[in-house]
Amino acid sequence: MERYHGAEAGAAAEAHFDRLFVERGLPDEMPEREFSDDPVHVPALLADALGGSRSDARRAVAQGGVRLGEEPVTELDLPAARLDGQVLRMGKRRYVRLRRAA
After folding, report:
1. CB atoms within 10 A of CB 78
2. Do 102 and 77 share a structural domain?
3. Which of 19-23, 67-71, 75-79 has the weakest average pLDDT?
4. Shared domain check, 89 and 47
């Protein structure tokens, strides 16, 4: 990589890789999704924001594969105030930042 992009780009790419895959941090860029329902049906939100079906999202919630921030999501309906500004993660690498519609 240094040959084509220089040493600084290689160091930045390595730091980015370490943050995402070694430290399991959040990516710099992720899709955002607005919602307006209260309470919010989490499987519907996941299906709309990340693709897939509501059934897949429901199974992921039941198996503990959906997290809101660092906490696992255990309920299918959550209050809108709890979701605003949070990062919802399904699996290891599917993220969406949630915003409440005005």
Report:
1. 19
2. yes
3. 19-23
4. yes
Q: 63 by DSSP, 3-state: which?
A: coil
Nearby residues of 48 by Cβ (< 8 Å), 6 or more positions away: 33
**Are 74 and 26 in the same domain?**
no
Q: What is the pLDDT of residue 28?
A: 81
In the three-class reduction of DSSP (H, G, I as helix; E, B as strand; rest coil), residue 27 is classed as: coil
Domain that holds residue 80: 31-102
Tell whether 19 and 49 lie within a shared domain. Answer: no
Residues 2-25 have a mean pLDDT of 83
- When divided into structural domains, the chain yields a total of 2
Which residue carries 């160091």 as its tokens? 11
Residue 77 and residue 52 share a domain: yes
pLDDT at residue 2, as a whole number: 64
Q: How far apart are CA 23 and CA 26, in angstroms?
A: 9
pTM for the model = 0.77
